[in-house]
Structure formats: C-alpha cells, structure tokens
Amino acid sequence: MSKAFASQADLDDKKTTFEQLSEHCWAYTAEGDPNSGVIIGEKFIMVSDATATPAMARDLIKHIRTVSDKPIKYVLLTHYHAVRVLGASAYLAEGATEVIASRGTYELIVERGAQDMQSEMERFPRLFRGADSVPGLTWPTLVIGDGQPGRQGSLEVDLGGVKVSIWHPGPGHTRGDTIAWVEAEKVLFSGDLVEYEAGVYTGDAQLEEWPATLEALRALGAEAIVPGRGEAMKGKDDVNKALDYTKRWVTTLFQAGKEAAAAGMDLKTAMAHTRKSMDPVFGHVFIYEHCLPFDVSRAFDEAQGIKNPRIWTAERDQEMWKALQA
Ligand SMILES: [Zn+2]
Questions:
Q1: What is the pLDDT of residues 10-33, one digit of tens each?
Q2: How far is the CA of 205 from the centre of ligand 1 (A)?
C-alpha cells in the first residue's frame, strides 16, 4: 500500500494565536496552517483571507469580537486557494457585503476553482473537517485591477481611522496574488506570497517572476507582516527575514527544477535531485513534506516552458504521488 500524502496523516489540531501588531492591525496565526489578517477601523473591519471552512472562520470571528463589535464588512481573498477562501460564507452570514479579489484571482476561480476545491479537501482532511458546511466556491463581489501588476490598479478602503491599500504586486504564489497594506502603520498582509518557517507551496506558482515580486514588497519597508503561513513578524529585520526565507525557497527549488529538466530527469529523479539542496535548509519546517512533491512538479514543468501551471485535480494528485512512489 502506498503512503498517504503527508498532510492526510497530519490530524493534530494547531494552536491559534490572535495577536495585535499595530493600532488597527491583527494577526491570526496557526503554527504553519493558513493565517488570516484583521484590520479593525472605527467603522468597519476587514479580514484578509477567510480560512478553510465556515467553522474555522467562526473561531476567528469569536476572537475579533473580544476586541471590537464593529461590522466585518470586507473579506479580501489574497488568492484563490481553497484553504484561504472557503470560510468566507461565515462572514457573509455575519453581514459582510464585499468580497474583494484581483482580476487574476477571479479568472483563476473561473478556470480551476472547482478542481482546486476538490483537490485541496482531499489533501488536507484536518483543515476541511467542517467541509460539509462549505456552500460552494467563494465568488468575489468586487474585482480590482486589470490583471497587470502595480499600484495603479490599487483599491483604497477607508475603515474609519485606518486606510487599507489593496493591489496585485506581481505574479508569485499564483498569477493573481493580492496584498493588503496599511501604510500609516507599515503593516503588510501578504497572503502566500511570503511565508516564514513553513512550507512554501508553489504548485500553482510563477517561479521565475516570484523573486521580483518579493523585492517589490521589500521596497514597501514594512515593519510588520502577516505571512500566509508561519508566525507574524515584527520589526524591519524580521520582515526581511521572511522575505529572504521565501526567496531562498523559491530560487533553490527552481534552480533544482532547471537542472533536472536540463538533465532530462523523470519526476522521481527530479524529486531526489531537489531534495539535495532543499532538505538541509528547509526539511524541518511545517508541511515541508506536504509541499515538496507539488513544488517539484511545478518547478520541473516551469523549467520546461509550461507557463500556465497545469490544473491540479484529485486524480492528478494521485497520479503524481504514484509516480513518486514507483
Ligand atoms: Zn495558497
């Protein structure tokens, strides 16, 4: 019998932390599970990333209600991945009226949202324990930008006493990644564009372009960051640590993928080759073993010129896994 995906056997609950980073900004982190950010204004609240299920979202709402009774009006989807968006209905039930996403994210939900939902639910049984309460895909109500990177397509949201800027800084974790930036408090909500001491999932990534996008984020000069996974980082040095960590993962992985493609390796050999440079640096972090097969597959594809990541389906997950076990 073949071994299950790493995360199918990972069933222990994580400890969540709800932490204040600045006057209006909060981080909800979970020991390597998907994080959310919360921005609390005098009139409205915005949540950046909705968690995997309505049940998890309700846990975050409970935390929010310990510090504010203002309406949660805005939900930002930093990208389309199911573990970040399928909790959104809990906020809609709570009265949220705007679900914000970039043009690129909207297009990816249309193109592959359904397959992604099925595939991710099977990959992460722990995160999707309450999946029967998910009413279906989450659709944005407010689509921003024209798909081109840069602040000219940015949306400014005034929550009362705090302004949030939202834009697509460039391709990376997906081609539609969006960030939220609270300039006055120098707090960045990066989604999965930045991770720290947790697996950097790159199965749907644009690896070639990702490092330049990280440099665009570095240029903001953030003094705190809520990464997609891993603890919230405070102070410029620690923000840079997270940016450097992610960049090192992406460049080390892609370099190995290019070498594997140039040498004409098959996927299993490419995996073994990639482990030589990745394991010593990253082998100890949360969900490393879960991410690696998807990451190697994508790096190997992109190195061979496949620009648009192939869609992961539950069946493709299994085929890939079998090829690696062979
Ligand atoms: Zn993601």
A1: 667 788 999 999 999 999 999 888
A2: 9
CA distance 139 to 136: 9
CA of 229 to the centre of ligand 1 (A): 9
What is the Cα–Cα distance from 122 to 137, expressed in whole angstroms?
A: 16
Measured in angstroms, how far is the CA atom of residue 67 from the centroid of ligand 1? Answer: 28
12 C-alpha to ligand 1 centroid (Å): 21
Q: How far is the CA of 88 from the centre of ligand 1 (A)?
A: 15
**Is residue 254 predicted with pLDDT exceeding 90?**
yes
Count of Cβ atoms closer than 10 Å to residue 197 Cβ: 18
The pLDDT tens digits for 268-290 are 999 999 999 999 999 999 999 99
Query: Ligand 1 centroid to 191 CA: how many Å?
Result: 7
Contact assessment for residue 196 and residue 230, using Cβ atoms and an 8 Å cutoff: yes
- Edge to edge, what strands does the sheet with 25-30 contain? 17-20, 25-30, 33-40, 45-48, 72-76, 98-102, 142-144
User: Which domains, from first to last, does the chain contain?
Assistant: 6-248 (3.60.15.10)
Model pLDDT, residue 1:
37
What spacing in Å lies between the alpha carbon of 161 and ligand 1's midpoint?
30
For tokens 């982190």, name the residue.
29
Measured in angstroms, how far is the CA atom of residue 42 from the centroid of ligand 1? 30
User: What values do phi and psi take at 292, rounded to 5?
Assistant: -55, -45
